[in-house]
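Chapter review: from sequence to fold.
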Amino acid sequence: MINKTWLDELGLEVPTTLDELHDALVAFKESDMATMYGNDPGSTIPMSFGIDQWCWGQNIYYAGFGFTNWTNDVCMDLLLQPDGKVNFVCDDDNYRVALEYFHDWFTEGLIDQEVFSQDDTQYMAKCSQGRVGVATWWYIEELMGDHSDDYVFLPILDGPDGTHNVTVRDGGGINSGNLSITSACESPINLLKFYDQWYDPENVMQLQYGPIGTYFTEQDSNGLWQSISDEEAEAQFGKSAGELKGEWEVSGPKLILSDYYRTTFEMEPRAQERLNDLYDYWMPYVKDTTCYPVDCVFTSDELDIIDQYRTSFEQYVAQKEATWLRDGGITDESWEAYKDDLNSYGMNDLLEVYQAAYDRYVETAGAEENTAPAATAESAE
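The token string follows.
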């Protein structure tokens, strides 16, 4: 998001490219635009985020270099290419170019120097005070507070070569690993009967958001439960509706079907707004929705390899990314040494594991399609 009021004051249009965004950030800094809101001189922060943070990280700006993957979550956010080959972007040449490009922004003072250390509370405070010109978050009103009307979402920005590419992750309608039954369970059947009740529409509604009488306040004329508003939540509990949800939601096996929003409860207004924003500002830029399936299944040997390498591999990538963004210094020699180090941290082994799991996934899906009963005219009708 970007402060449109600042742009208007400076006679600038909403940027459509990274280079245009750079020029806008320079103008924000030189004109010290935060003073418009009564902030102290020199307090303007042209751009801020949290390095590799979910929903407030920098990965959206990498679209101008061909990807939007989280580079500190390499394995969960690997790139599945259209030819079915898996890839980690962290050793691609365009990833190097992106780091070099944004390092220049750091040296110019256009990016908050605290992006490597600040937590979300510190970040939100800066933004709500009207000090930050460009920021990332999933909800303008939640981040910018009283100044939210002055901000608009940026489009996906073209890079220096005039192109962009948005890569997506499979959130997965169905996932595994939310319930494990150990040998200490005296009655697995009764345990499963208990968890079966978690899938009842009215139960899963409360498990996901909060109980009736707290998060859900009343039913409309069609019997759909209505969620509490931010204003009501603030008045009754001293917190936002989102904070109330975070306090009450229960982790575990559950599934919300889209039909529940027509039969049991209305989608919360904030979620509906974010969904609209997703389709208005993000999905139009997605050219290819190919993504790695979240429900791939790994063998025990493959899980051992993932356990052996994943944490140290991802930590090394994140550490190098932060260092190069802040300090620069990428040379042909250091880049080749980095790629060699990635292999010593198990990159090739991890790629083989994820490729093998995906290949089995595709093979199994194809087998299921081939064995599915053919539809008759009667069943089709």
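Two observations follow directly from the output. The chain has 15 helices and eight strands. The mean pLDDT is 90.
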